[in-house]
Amino acid sequence: MRHIRLLLPLALAAGTLSGCGAAIEGRAADDGRPVVLTTFTVLADIAENVAGEHLRVESITKVGAEIHGYEPTPGDIAKASEADLILDNGLNLEAWFGQFVESVDVPHVVVSDGVEPIDIAADAYAGTPNPHAWMSPVNVQIYVDNMVEAFSELDPEHASDFEAAGTAYQAELQEVQDELVDGLSALPENERALATCEGAFSYLARDAGLTERYIWPVNAEQQATPQQIAGMIEFVEAGDIPAVFCESTVSDKPMRQVVEATGAAFGGTLYVDSLSEADGPVPTYLDLIRYDTRIILDALGGGDA
Ligand SMILES: [Zn+2]
């Protein structure tokens, strides 16, 4: 109950919220299961792992979408009003979300509840929490706890299944975390640095013992200023950092400039804000975090420093 927020009294008859499968727009595949709507693909995949076959999980934004500055469509609102539960990341990720959920009478759970937030240090976002908590497998274990609790309230009959699925998934998350920490421990101190385009790795860096540096704090404003690029060049040179990275949803041009100026390797493209299509490299969250872990370890470990 603690995590469930009823934003407006649930005065509507239950039948208008769920269960009436007849010809509702966007519910072509309605199969009678409760519908859990998430804000983006990463959350949807994590939720599916906890929900198993008992709930139908969907994402408002599509694969590859820019999630920070997304603008919901009337279709999204219609879809949300038919959901039984809405999950959002919180920590200011979904700037568009507050107004969005106010327009529908559906219970809403913030899956990052309980994560210790890290504030963004720079620019217009200074002092607001960094939203990218899912980039640490340690935090996602908290997301899973919140989902197990929310799903068990939504569908108490299957509470023990949610619990078991959540525990199994948490064990896989811990494996990735251990791989990252073990791999990094083999590197010299100065090479334990993560230089990226977006400041999306603060939680991963904190939980894995990496020093983080980014060109811009949040992808919503992805125009690198000359000062931002100069700052990155200085960081790479000062630490003799072997490799730098950029994320899949933005242009890596500014980071290529850093590569040219410093001779550091371009370590690869990291996935953060979206999964890939099913036939891409990171169709699930576990794929995403394993993929990033390997790119980071390979590039830092095999660098030319
Ligand atoms: Zn982001």
If you had to describe this structure to a student in words, what would you say it looks like?
By secondary structure, the chain is an alpha/beta fold. The chain has a domain of 118 residues: Nitrogenase molybdenum iron protein domain (Rossmann fold, 3-Layer(aba) Sandwich). The strands form 3 sheets. The chain has a 4-stranded parallel beta sheet, with helices on one face. Strands 5-6 form a two-stranded parallel sheet. The protein has a two-stranded parallel sheet with strand order 7-8. The protein is globular. The site of zinc ion has 7 residues, from loops. GO terms for molecular function: metal ion binding. Keywords: Metal-binding, Signal, Transport.
The sequence of SSEs as H and E is HEHEHEHEHHEHEHEHEH
**How many separate helices?**
10
Structural class: alpha/beta
The top-level CATH class of one domain is Alpha Beta
Give me the CATH architecture of one domain, please: 3-Layer(aba) Sandwich
Query: Uncertain runs with pLDDT below 50, 5 residues or more?
Result: 1-28
CA(first)-CA(last) distance: 53 Å
Bound molecules: zinc ion
Q: Order of strands side by side in the largest beta sheet?
A: 2-1-3-4
**In CATH terms, what is the fold-level topology of one domain?**
Rossmann fold
CATH level-4 homologous superfamily of one domain: Nitrogenase molybdenum iron protein domain
- Integer-rounded radius of gyration: 20 Å
Shape: globular
Can you give the helix content as a percent range? Answer: 40-55%
Main location: other
Protein name: Manganese transport system substrate-binding protein
Family: Belongs to the bacterial solute-binding protein 9 family.
GO molecular function: metal ion binding
